[in-house]
Amino acid sequence: MAKTITNSKQTSADIVHKQVARVYALALVDAAVLAGIDETILSEFAEFVDHVLDRHAEFEAFLGSALISIDEKASVLDRILSNRISPLLLSFLKVVGRHDRFNCLRTIRHEAVREYHRRHGKMEVELCVALEPSDALTSEICQMLCGAIGVEPILDTVIDPALLGGFTLTVGDTIYDGSVRTQFRGTRESIIQQTIHMIQAQRTTR
What we know:
The protein is an alpha/beta fold. The chain has helices at 12-35, 38-53, 57-64, 70-81, 87-98, 105-119, 135-149, 188-204, and strands spanning 3-4, 122-129, 152-159, 167-171, 174-177.
């Protein structure tokens, strides 16, 4: 199911936040791979975000509070999670806390999954459009992208009404922007041909 956003502007603070989160994500994935439990760590991390942070806003507020000491937060994490998650993930969460980065946990989780996919020959691709595409069109875009980028795409469709008649395609760290230079007419040929053209143009300029 496609996500809908109301504000597509990315600030410099957002960029820094993502960069910081990626540093932590890479460290987590590296440690998990060395321990041979990368899939387990990512699964546990996902459960922590989805079933703890998302469902218990007061606990997330507790972790983010500047009025509560780092040691107290670490003690609570130990008490709640020590028998529920791997020691590696628990240690990682406490490191994040010591550096006052609990506000980055969701982004760290996203970047960790993204890095895991990259190492397994997959790549997350975000298609941002004004109107939700059909399942058939989404499938065809995935097939086209697989041939264009050489890895299996994991397509995430985002609906952004602010694009009006355009679309953007984010492949890895590269954004192919068709929201200004071209009109999105809602046809299969339009989206696919514009996407192919932009990817090929990007490659020839490198």
